[in-house]
Design brief:
Number of domains: 1
Distance between the termini: 12 Å
Helix content: 40-55%
Structural class: alpha/beta
Largest sheet: 5 strands, parallel
CATH architecture: 3-Layer(aba) Sandwich
Strand order of the largest sheet: 2-1-3-6-7
Low-confidence stretches: none
CATH topology: Rossmann fold
Number of helices: 6
Order of helices and strands: EHEHHEHEEEHEH
CATH class: Alpha Beta
Radius of gyration: 18 Å
Strand content: 15-25%
């Protein structure tokens, strides 16, 4: 039995291609993994805490071996709760549309909230960072409308998957599988969508 958490970064609801492909994945996953569960964390649902001055000071307090107090303690507790919600699963599905060659800011906010010392990572002065989110698997749906593999820089640059997969591996998630939908401005959206959905089903069956 496994527990899958779908973390979605698109605010477009039924109009979102990344969410639709993710639903194809979760439908196939549930059909082929009896007894497994799938939960959804919509990063736009209002439950993701801010990571502002109090949280930043709390992080540095923890780095220094101290205990956050007052407003800092409240901000730190919110970050820890978000991490615990994330860490409770052994499988992740992320649906990530490309925004301005990168990822939606809510996904970056999520990363900044959960990426805390002794939770997502630790660091040693001689050996550097060590990711603590180990023994997990992740599948990522990447979508874009203009950028596509093989196109020149005038159509954008892929800071979407390079940034996000870099974060996953830095955090300790070593098993990462991509599902891509990049029809570009001149490609066949319908054909690319069918291929992406079939890829999603294929990955889900053995995930």
């Amino acid at each position: 039995m496994s527990r899958l958490l779908h973390i979605s970064a698109s605010p477009r609801g039924d109009q979102s291609t990344s969410l639709a492909i993710a639903r194809t994945f979760t439908d196939e996953y549930l059909a082929t993994h009896p007894g497994s569960t799938v939960d959804h964390f919509d990063l736009w649902d209002g439950t993701l805490p801010e990571f502002g001055p109090a949280a930043a000071h709390a992080k540095m307090t923890v780095f220094a071996g101290g205990t956050p107090e007052g407003e800092q303690a409240d901000a730190w507790a919110a970050a820890v709760r978000t991490f615990e919600r994330f860490d409770a699963y052994d499988r992740y599905l992320f649906s990530v549309p490309m925004w301005n060659s990168g990822v939606p800011y809510k996904l970056k906010q999520f990363i900044d909230v959960v990426s805390q010392p002794a939770l997502v990572f630790d660091v040693h002065p001689e050996t550097g960072y060590r990711g603590l989110v180990t023994g997990k698997r992740a599948a990522v749906v990447y979508t874009s409308a203009v950028w596509g593999p093989g196109l020149g820089a005038e159509f954008g640059t892929d800071h979407q998957s390079t940034f996000f997969e870099g974060w996953l591996r830095w955090a300790g998630v070593g098993d990462v599988t991509a599902i891509r939908h990049h029809p570009t401005l001149t490609g066949s959206h319908e054909n690319e969508r069918k291929q992406a959905e079939e890829r999603a089903r294929e990955v889900a069956r053995t995930f």
